[in-house]
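Project outcomes to date are best conveyed with an example. Our students and postdoctoral researchers have been running inverse folding experiments weekly, and each run begins with a structure described purely in C-alpha cells. The record below, which covers 114 residues, was selected by the lab manager from last quarter's runs and is presented without edits.
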C-alpha cells in the first residue's frame, strides 16, 4: 500500500516549454507601426473575450519578453501551454486563451523601412 504523494509518474514531467514561434507571413506587407497598432488593439480588447485580466497581463508580459523570462512568467502565473508557441494556453481553472501570431513574433514580410 502507498499513499498518494506528489511524486511524478512516468510521463508527467512532459510539461510544454515555451518555444519561439514558427516564421509566418502576413497576407500583405506590413510595417512596424501597423504591427504595433494591431498588437495594442489586441491587448486592449483581449480581457473582453473572457478569462482573468491578470492572466492576460501575464501573457502579454511573456509575449513581449525573451524566451527564458517568458517561461518564468508562464510558470509563475500557472499558465498551461497547449502549444509551445503560446498560441493556445489555459489557466489553472481551464479557461482557454488564444493568442494570434502577430502578438508573438514579427512576420517574415515586415517592412522595416517605415
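After processing, the design step wrote out the following sequence:
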Amino acid at each position: 500500500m502507498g499513499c498518494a504523494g506528489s511524486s511524478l509518474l512516468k510521463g508527467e514531467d512532459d510539461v510544454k516549454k515555451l518555444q519561439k514561434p514558427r516564421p509566418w507571413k502576413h497576407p500583405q506587407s506590413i510595417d512596424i507601426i501597423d504591427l504595433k497598432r494591431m498588437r495594442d488593439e489586441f491587448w486592449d480588447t483581449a480581457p473582453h473575450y473572457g478569462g482573468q485580466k491578470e492572466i492576460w497581463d501575464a501573457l502579454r508580459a511573456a509575449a513581449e519578453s525573451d524566451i527564458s523570462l517568458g517561461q518564468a512568467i508562464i510558470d509563475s502565473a500557472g499558465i498551461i501551454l497547449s502549444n509551445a508557441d503560446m498560441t493556445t494556453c489555459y489557466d489553472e481553472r481551464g479557461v482557454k486563451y488564444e493568442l494570434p501570431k502577430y502578438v508573438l513574433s514579427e512576420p517574415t514580410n515586415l517592412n522595416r523601412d517605415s
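Residues 1-12 have pLDDT under 50 and may be disordered. The domain at 30-101 is CATH 1.20.225.20 (Bacteriocin As-48; Chain A). The training component of this project remains on track.
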